[in-house]
Write a structure and sequence with these properties.
six-stranded antiparallel sheet; 6 strands; alpha+beta; 30% strand
């Protein structure tokens, strides 16, 4: 059985091959994750404005002292949190190599656990 990271590596590679042959935009979802760090960033402040389908920005934080593979998640220039550590190695690898990865909000929930309030999907463009 392949690990989740190897599946993501394979999806990113497949996306490159598809992009070379596609005439229209293909959206290949490579990962779905909950947002990490909801309590520590702007997610709580902007919560009432967030909508399912809203685009998100992904950014590598190469100088993050806590996680060498850190990928931050922002909405309209406001940092909401991070891709969870357990899910970020393949995404960091892809972003470091210039892969066209995008993200969008896929689920919002008023769950009492902040780690389960925002779910997002990452897809290859």
């Amino acid at each position: 059985m392949r690990s989740a990271s190897s599946a993501i590596f394979a999806a990113i590679a497949l996306m490159g091959a598809l992009r070379a042959h596609a005439e229209e935009t293909i959206r290949l979802v490579v990962q779905s994750s909950p947002l990490a760090g909801f309590r520590y960033h702007a997610a709580g402040e902007v919560w009432p404005e967030l909508r399912v389908g809203d685009p998100l920005e992904l950014a590598r934080e190469n100088d993050n002292p806590y996680d060498l593979n850190a990928v931050s998640v922002s909405w309209r220039g406001r940092k909401l949190g991070y891709v969870p550590r357990r899910d970020n190695a393949a995404l960091a690898w892809g972003l470091d190599r210039g892969e066209a990865l995008a993200a969008r909000i896929s689920r919002l929930s008023r769950h009492p656990n902040p780690a389960r309030r925002i779910e997002f999907e990452i897809y290859a463009r």
